[in-house]
Amino acid sequence: MTAALALGDDALVLSHRLGEWAGHAPVLEEEVALANIALDLLGQARVLLSLAGDEDELAYLREERAFRNVQLVEQPNGDFAHTIARQLYFSTYQELLYEELARGDGPFAPLAAKAVKEVAYHRDHAEQWTLRLGDGTEESHQRMRRALDALWRFTGELFEPVEGCEVEWSALHGAWLSRVTAVLTRATLSLPEGPWRGAWAAGAGRQGIHTEPFGPMLAQMQHLHRSHPGAAW
Amino acid sequence: MVTPAPHAPTALEEELRRLAGAVPDPELPMVSLAELGVLRGLRVLAPGRVEVELTPTYTGCPAVETMAADIERVLHDRGVPEVEVRTVLAPPWTTDAISAEGRRKLAESGIAPPAPRRAAAGGPVPVELTVRCPHCGSTETTLLSRFSSTACKALRRCETCREPFDHFKEL
Questions:
Q1: I need a surface site. Which of A6, A217, A232, B106 has the fewest CB within 10 A?
Q2: Which of A47, A114, A116, A129 to mutate to test the interface with B (most CBs of B within 10 A)?
Q3: Which residues of A touch B (CB under 8 A)?
Q4: Same-domain pairing of B161 and B111
Q5: Measured between beta carbons, which residues in chain A are less than 8 angstroms from residue B59?
Q6: Structural domain boundaries enclosing B126
Q7: How confident is the model at residue B123 (pLDDT cuts 50, 70, 90)?
Q8: So what's the pLDDT on residue A198?
Q9: Residues B17 and B61 in one domain
Q10: ipTM
């Protein structure tokens, strides 16, 4: 199932990236928050990947080109502002998408109806930090600005239709733009200019084309399972 | 979806459901699975064969596997050799499923229980302004983090007695 892989890989890969903050977050509360969000996403990934096959085989034994996640979620954590910008772009999208999927009676409706309430907390967390960093010091404002600009070119791909998801993608994009714009305005920031997809690569994660940082991430995520098949503890 | 029971629960099913429902939550052992509202159903499929439906609080809740193992154990002890615990997602669990008794026990153990939910779609997650300190009863409490020791809790601090405490956040 293409759609289960696409949505499941988004959740799995972002969960892994957020988990990389464990032991490195700026304050303890934030460490706990990012780990909680990662755990929610991992739960979603398990349900979604199980719709497509064996969750462990899919997570640990696929090659890079078989992953269908958007390139946004595989981008490295960068500084804290990059992580927050990635969260803002993605969780705003994911909340809107799950709201749509929860309304239908497709295979994703039960998960979407449940997870949308969790994602509302993720989106709220990202918004609160965007406001605090954007409307904070000159340094935090600059960093938030840089992060939003750097990740902007990966946002167009979020609205590429996914086969098997009955969603009005252009309406979703419109709703996303107005929500993100509203938050950025309150944070004394503005919507980045420039293309929201790169001519060279962005837009291809759903087809299995990924950016350079994804390979090393996968190697780290998969090496234990590959080195010790069936390991459990 | 939950498979509707083809019949009213038998005396045996009611007894087994009471046993399964009395299993304590692995992470919040002061409340039982029944009080938490996560036990959705129990059916005797055939003599010695029981199916239990469990719903997670959060999709990624790591306690579900322990809950399932604990349910299997108490039913095995009661003489049911075959127990299958299924996880169901629909309808989604909400904090409104926690019983009055469960709320009382949470508060007694220093965890502020969730408020009844308000309908809020798309807007900001509602901020509960009057979460009462479970230690001293003060309403002067502030949110430290929306995320705490488990997925289902937020971290707050009481401005009166200065103690930090967990709040079972509304879902």
A1: A232
A2: A114
A3: 29-30, 32-33, 35-37, 39-44, 46-47, 95, 99, 109-111, 113-115, 117-118, 120-121, 124-125, 127
A4: yes
A5: 40, 43-44, 46-47, 111, 114-115, 118
A6: 106-168
A7: low
A8: 67
A9: yes
A10: 0.83
Instruction: Tell me how many domains chain B contains.
Output: 2
Whether B81 maps to a domain, the answer reads: yes
Q: Where are the alpha helices (DSSP H) in A20-54?
A: 28-52
pLDDT > 60? residue B135? yes
Spatial distance between the Cα atoms of A218 and A204, rounded to a whole number of angstroms: 17
**Total number of domains constituting chain A:** 1
What mean pLDDT is reported for chain B? 90
Tell me how far apart the alpha carbons of residues A217 and A58 are, in angstroms, rounded to a whole number: 15
Q: Using 50, 70 and 90 to split pLDDT, how confident is the model at B151?
A: confident
The answer to whether residue B124 neighbours chain A at the CB level (below 8 Å) is yes
> What residue in B sits closest to A127 (Cα-Cα)?
B124
Cβ burial of B143 (10 Å; 0-12, 13-18, 19+) is middle
Residue A77 lies in a domain: yes
Same domain, B123 and B56: no
Domain assignment of residue B98, yes or no: no
Give the type of residue at B106: L
> Which of A14, A15, A28, A32 to mutate: most B Cβ within 10 Å?
A32
Please tell me if residue B56 touches chain A, with a CB cutoff of 8 Å. yes
Q: Range of A179's domain?
A: 2-227
> B124, B164, B166: which is closest to B149 by C-alpha?
B166
Residue B5 in this model has a pLDDT that exceeds 70: no
